[in-house]
Amino acid sequence: MFKNFLKYKFLTILFSLLIISAIVSPILKDYFISNWPKILEEKIQETEFQISNEFQKKLDRFSEIKNKLKSEIELNTKINLANDFSFIIVDEKDSVFDFKGFYADKIEKDYGPNLSDKYFQNNLINTFIACSDNITIAKENYRLIVTELIEKKYDIENDFFIETSFTKYLSEKYKIDLSINYGRDSLVNSDGRTHQFRIPNNDNEILATVTFAKPGRDIFISNQNEIIKQIQSILAIILLIAFFYEIIKDIKKKLISENVFSFVFIILIFVFRFAIYFLGFPSSFFGGDFVSPAIYSSSFGWGIASNPLELIISSITILSIVVILNKKISSFVTNKLNAKYISIISIIALSILFFFFIRGYAAVIKSIIFDSSINYLNNNSLILDFVPSTVILSSLFITIAVFLVLYNFIDGLINLIQNEKNISELKSWIIVFIILQVVGSLFDLIQHEPLLSSFLRIILVTGLFIVYIISKKENYKSTIIITHLAILAAVINSILIANFDNDKDEHSIKVVAYELTRFDEDFIEVNLNLFLFDEFYSLLEQTESASINYDQFLFFLWSNSALKENILNSSFYLFDSELNKLGDYSFNQSEDYTFFFKKYFIQKDNHEPEIFNESIYANSNSLIGVTSFRINGKKYYLGLKVNYDLKSLIASNEPDFLLGKQKYLLSNQSIENLLIMQLKDYEVFVLNSNIKIDKNEKELLFSAEFNNHNDAWKEIEIDGILYKFYFLKSNHNSGNSIAIGLQEKEASITLFQFFKIFLIFALFILIYGIAIVVLNFVKQRKVIIDFRSKLAFSLIIISIAPIILLAVYFRNLTNEKNLDAIFYKLNKRSISVEEYINKRISDSEFNILKFAKNANDDLGIDFNIYSQKEIVFSTRSNLYNSGIFPSWISSEVFDRLFIQNQNDILLTETIENQQYNSIYYKTKINNEIYVFEVNDLFNSILIPLAISDFDIILFGTYSLAAIFVIILSTILANQISLPLRRLTNAAKSASYGDLNLNIEYKRKDEIGELTNAFNKMLNEIKKMQTDLSTVERETAWKEIAKQVAHEIKNPLTPMKLSMQQLIAAYNDKSPKFDEIFSKVSRTILGQVENLRNIASEFSNFARMPIGEMTSVNLKEIITEVANLFVDERIKIDLTFPKNPIRVNGDENHFKRIFINLIRNSIQAKADKLSVNIEEIEDSIKIKIEDNGEGIQKEFIDKIFSKGFTTKKEGMGLGLNLAKRYLNNISSDISIESSSVNGTIFSINLPHQKKI
Amino acid sequence: MKRILKKYIAFQFFVIMLIATFANIDLRESAQETFSKIESAFSSNNISSIAELVDNTTFISLSNGVVGYFSSDQTINILKKFLEENKPLQFNLTNKKTETRKPFATGNFIYVNNGIRKQSRVFVSMYLSGENWIISQITIN
Q1: What count of Cα atoms within 13 Å lies in the side-chain half-sphere of residue A321?
Q2: ipTM for this model
Q3: Which of A176, A481, A1236, B46 has the fewest C-beta atoms under 10 angstroms from its C-beta?
Q4: Using a CB-CB distance cutoff of 8 angstroms, which residues of chain A are in contact with residue B82?
């Protein structure tokens, strides 16, 4: 028991911890319940302390940066202004002397409680930390006021928006519902459910008030339970890993068969995969896109592909299982189904199963496209984000797994056919290829909706066959086969993903139709109701009446409303009690409703919110919302207009960074690629183009046949371009509908999309290749890159380098030209505006602001005018008035125009994360200096070839060129290096004594000369060896004869003398004859024994030397020998057990034996040879089987005899030497069978004894 | 004869109107039932029970920033994950409007997120696909 405990102590400890955690959980719960008041108090104190600390840290960091900034300004060194920091320097008269930073215009000249004290500056949409200080510049005294943005009180949910919120940071970090009221008089009401505390400055004055919700007991306990649950999950997973590790260890010890081990291992992998999923690992431990079902999610496998992270784990699991199963599928098919009748049925069944696998694979890829929101191919960026890349990569893992199964199916089918029909390899390949193509075509016919096109199916099967044939010919290891399958998977997957993405394009136009019809009157009314009856009052509470900026107030209302949330085209108008307009803010609206609202409020002076339908402009669907309210006793009127006509939903004149969630409208499509129409009362309204619809086209559009879901699909040619149209009825019973047409993709886009996906796969395969090289290096401590690879790599580098350089050059050139074109067009616009205004200077009522407005109306150009640093006019004034844009010119522009005295500046600027180009142009009008700014944020500038479009063309075509270069380089390198590789292998074989070689090379070039010289050299060596052996043999015989004579003479003399003594005794009739006879007999027998010993000695002398006895790894030796023949016309199959096979013997002898056997097979015209090692108890059996001409029956007995050969130039030594050597090491070689179909040699060796 | 014919036509029209009215009442009732089913699925944190109410073009907009059109598999898993992160305390569709082509309902969702009790507004709309109501939009903001 104790022994078991020690053995599994880790498991026992983990299990105990799990039990303890289960026991502790309810105890903790009881403890929390009974001690809740105390815990609550501690928790509140702790949170207050943590938040105060955070404030202190934030304020200290601000002080540090402010002091650094001050010294940089005083020392006149380069100013490095940190993000979100701004400053102004004011003189004694409060005039701004210098400024810098995006929010410099927002800085109030309010100096705070005391000098150098930090405080907060607030407006409706921003909060800043601020601090003022004295500063001396050029011996003059000034006041420096520095601010740092701490809160943005609005949120635009898009990729451009940079969120800044200290409140949100604290809320998320400490998991509390928190609000901060910034300001010196910031005490707010608090009830028992919340806790409130102050953030003081050094003089103990209030800087801000923090209010947070006290944690609820049940929620607190539930949180603690969640933590315990997570700990339990981690413990359970570690326990599972440890448990499985022990199982594997135990199974290995029991020496069960490899198949059973693999089966158990696979079961464990399965169980582990599902166990970690149900334990919530790793999804519940991570956040963000990686675990977001919105990125990808499928219902497959009870949820094991429910998000990108689960998908990649599952795909790796599937691939691992298939890699473990590799070869077992094929051997199962070959061995278990190899019986008459069964094999024929099996061939048919397997062929069908083959295509079910392909369909399953296509279904997975379809799911990856259709169950994801990743805009894989329709955005123009070349590099995909990490998470979408992992989803794409998962598809590659699954595809490799499926292809590996299919590869084994092909192998199994070919083996079945070979076994059944006893036909050549080539014929069996052709038969299986035809069977699969025919069954594939039939399978296409029986499927209701084939997921794979016939063309792609043929390509896939052919590709698998090519990989199969190459792998068999080259005798690839499984890692190399998987690499080849990965390349095939990359190509097929890229095509399939691009195909499904095309289908998704069609689906996406359906989405656009749904999106446009989603904004109906009901939906708008609900949102308006929500705003007027609910949101508005809570927003009003956050509004301070003093120094209210009305445009900012309206932007604040819009940006925090459901109207912005749902990107509804809306306008806000604010009037005072006298019905003077105080401000307005419009999102994507151009119509002015000021007059309408004034008229309405005059007629109906109500106080209650009201919503009604009113469209004062033709073809415009609008809902109006009105209300009035009071702040500090003052009455205000608020009018809202929400437009939901289709045309206004499609068109947008707002900068991208304000568009919010609008991106989902065009989830997979760009509106430019679509033709959107409204079909109403037998009239066609084209909503996003100026195309005129003719009568025929109109008839075709109205002839679409709707199904019971009220939608229809139809291909129609409009204006010479073929569109696929989706029609969606706006009402069941009406003929009115919306029609969205999608243009066919250009070839360059298809090419771009293919390579975009292929690039991810290629990168992964490259990493996989590097990993194999590194692993080999770790294993062998050396990197062997063969000549062929070096040559191919060099050719690829030499060819691709200029392609890349050219691509980079052309891209930069296009970028520069585009920028030039943009600035030229912006410049032209600014000159047009200036000329327009200058022409009107003579007007008696000249007013630059009035004529600037006229210029905007007449020329349709959006621009800004600055006087010194301040904006005096903007065609998009509401964006500047609301405070989203700074109302001051940037300090860089100011410096260059007014300090460095430049006349115009071209600049690339940034707002949030959106880049735009501007031109600033200084001019004098009526003796006043003005700066005109025209930018491409508000003005649409068309360029002939956008860099994104250029990337599409460049990437697609250059990638295609690169692929051709890689393929050609590989083929070329292979061809150049093939004769050299043959020569190298032949030289290696020769070094082991294999001289029966003749390398064929027909071309008469340098390599041909080298080959001929090598062949000649081998023949010479062989001839010399024969001659030498004859001479050596004769010399040896002479020497041996001498030795034999000499050695025999020695015992003969005593024998002769003894015999003479015996004869003399007999003749003399010696009485001691008997005694002498006995003595002589002993002497003669002794000498005969000596002769026998001499004979034995000579016999031993003549025996083969057994060489150096070492532990030899047979698998390595046979593989090494087989590799010598890779370039010869024989395919060698090696089947080895998994574990190393070691015997005692001499490595070189073994190599000679195997080289001899393979060479004999080649000479017997075999093109296929298999070497199979089998462990049988204490011995090892090596079976060498070829498909050569076989040995004639009458020769079989003589085949191991010395000097026996059936070859013209053979010496009859090879097999004889092999047998002699093997016999010497207690082993044997024999012929198991031989016929016209081939020969089987069998070698039996004793297993290496364990030392 | 003409009178009989007129009467017959009037009768036919009456029958058709009656059937249409009953059919509409049936549809409204089934829309009400579907809204109740949605309420119960959210309240009991059992989103799988409304799997048959979503198709491959469901619009979702949630307070955690998820927004867009999603496939049925995605919709179900998105909502499941949303309810895992935001443990439901109460889900009520208080205003239901079923007399329209696209019935919709608004209401409130009270939940616990990261230990904080929160409240969001809900908007759910449906459309008729064949004879079944399918959720076209779920907004929880």
Answers
A1: 18
A2: 0.85
A3: A1236
A4: none
Residue A490's region, left for phi above 0, alpha for psi from -120 to 50, else beta, is: alpha
Residue type, A10: F
**CA A290, CA A387: separation in Å to the nearest integer?**
6
Mutate to test the interface with B, among A178, A306, A310 (most CBs of B within 10 A): A306
Helix (H) or strand (E) holding A930: strand A928-935
Given a contact cutoff of 8 angstroms between Cβ atoms, the answer to whether A652 and A588 are in contact is: yes
Closest CA to A105 of A636, A706, A1200, A894: A894
The angle at the Cα of A160, spanning A158 to A163, to the nearest 5 degrees, equals: 80
Residue closest to A719 by CA, chosen among A683, A687, A689, A691: A691
Closest-CA residue to A87 (of A68, A72, A102, A71):
A102
CA distance A432 to A417: 8
- Please state, in angstroms and rounded to a whole number, the distance separating the CA atoms of residues B26 and B28: 5
Decide: helix, strand or coil at residue A1031.
helix
pLDDT at A805 over 80: yes
Task: Look at A222 and B129 and tell me if their CB atoms are within 8 Å.
Answer: no
- Amino acid occupying residue A1240: I
DSSP-assigned beta bridge partners for residue A205? none
- Confidence (pLDDT) at B16: 62
Q: How many CB atoms lie within 10 A of CB B128?
A: 18
Structure tokens that stand for B72 in this block: 């049925």
Identify which of A124, A92, A81, A127 has the alpha carbon closest to the alpha carbon of residue A107: A127
Pair of tokens at residue A378? 């329709």
Classify residue A534 by its DSSP letter.
I
Distance CA A69, CA A85 (A): 10
Share of chain A residues as helix, strand and coil, in percent rounded to the nearest 5:
55, 20, 25
β-pair type (B132-140, B58-62): parallel
| Backbone torsions φ then ψ of A913, nearest 5 degrees | -110, 15
Structure tokens of A773? 């090289």
A181 vs A210: CA distance, rounded Å:
6
Q: Residue B49: what pLDDT?
A: 94
When computed from its CA atoms, the radius of gyration of chain A, rounded to whole angstroms, is: 45
d(CA A315, CA A327): 20
Window B:73-132, CB contacts with A under 8 Å: 73-74, 76-78, 80-81, 84, 87, 97, 100-102, 104, 106, 112, 114-118, 121, 123, 125, 128-130
Side chain identity at residue A1230, one-letter code:
S
Nearest-CA distance B38 → chain A (Å): 19
- Contacts with A642 (C-beta within 8 Å, 6 or more apart), sequence order: A524, A527, A528, A563, A568, A569, A570, A622, A623, A624, A625
Evaluate whether A834 touches A805 at the Cβ level (below 8 Å): no
Closest Cα in chain B, distance from residue A297 (Å):
5
> In this model, does residue A962 exceed pLDDT 90?
no
| Residues in CB range of A156: below 8 A, 6 or more apart | A559, A564, A657, A658, A659, A660, A912
For residue A161, give every residue at least 6 positions away whose Cβ sits within 8 Å of its Cβ, in sequence order, or none.
A155, A657, A912, A913
Q: Give strand pairing partners of A137.
A: A140
Tokens 């079989």 identify what position?
A: A1196
Q: How far apart are CA A736 and CA A723, in angstroms?
A: 20
What pLDDT score was predicted for residue A1250?
43
Handedness of CA A1146, A1148, A1152, A1158 (dihedral sign): positive
Higher pLDDT, A385 or A492: A492
- Residue B45 CA to residue B86 CA, distance in Å, equals 10
